[in-house]
Amino acid sequence: MRVLVVEDDPQLGIWLRDALATAFGSSDIVTTLDEGRAAIAVRTFELVVIDRGLPDGDGLALLPDLRQQKPSPATVVLTALDDPADIARALDEGADDYVAKPFEPIELVARARAVLRRLYLDRGAVVSIANLSYDIVNRAVGVDGNPIVVPRRELAILEALVRRSGRVVLRETLESAAYGFEDEIQSNAIEAHVSRLRRRLREANCKATIRPVRGLGYLLSGE
């Protein structure tokens, strides 16, 4: 799952990025509306956390752009404004939730998870391939109903494969899922992560398989 943080306060932005990356997966941070629009133009995000007081305008101005995406991401608005009218305006303009500053990390993560749970209620939050199951909201992996622990970047790669099971997933797509805009990626990083992921699933007696497709990427199937 990819998360975008739109926040101009450097310290808060880094804190948000790290907290949300720990909870949900890869997370990117931008500091303006223009950077936010540029980010969503080149990557798909499942969760976007937006501050209202940005240097080039109100963060709510990004909501129409997000609503045009298919599927549209979950959105949580952050602000120091706690007037009921401000809250109502954010929700009326399409935000899924609204968190007033200051807030605790546990509150933001819980609210974001609740929003994602509602969002995926109709889409199907748990995906199954053979005896492998993946809970998109809780980022939980199971084989035959038994949970297995998967490190963060391998988990991001597995999620990208699960979401596109039965189809070839390009190497570039897996890089985008596992790494942020500012991360340095070694030339063989994806191959190394996939190799460890395949071994981990094999040791858990997973019947779903990840196969390399030469020159393109990888394919996850239940066959």
From TrEMBL:
SMART domains found in the cross-reference section: REC, Trans_reg_C
SUPFAM superfamilies: C-terminal effector domain of the bipartite response regulators (SSF46894), CheY-like (SSF52172)
Modified residues (4-aspartylphosphate): D51
Domain OmpR/PhoB-type: from-to ranges: 124-222
One Pfam family here: Trans_reg_C
Keywords of the record: DNA-binding, Phosphoprotein
Residue ranges for the DNA-binding region feature of this UniProt entry: 124-222
PROSITE patterns listed in its UniProt record: OMPR_PHOB, RESPONSE_REGULATORY
Residue intervals of the Response regulatory domain: 2-116
Keyword DNA-binding annotated: yes
InterPro entries: CheY-like_superfamily, OmpR/PhoB-type_DNA-bd, Sig_transdc_resp-reg_C-effctor, Sig_transdc_resp-reg_receiver, WalR-like, WH-like_DNA-bd_sf
Protein name in UniProt: Response regulator transcription factor
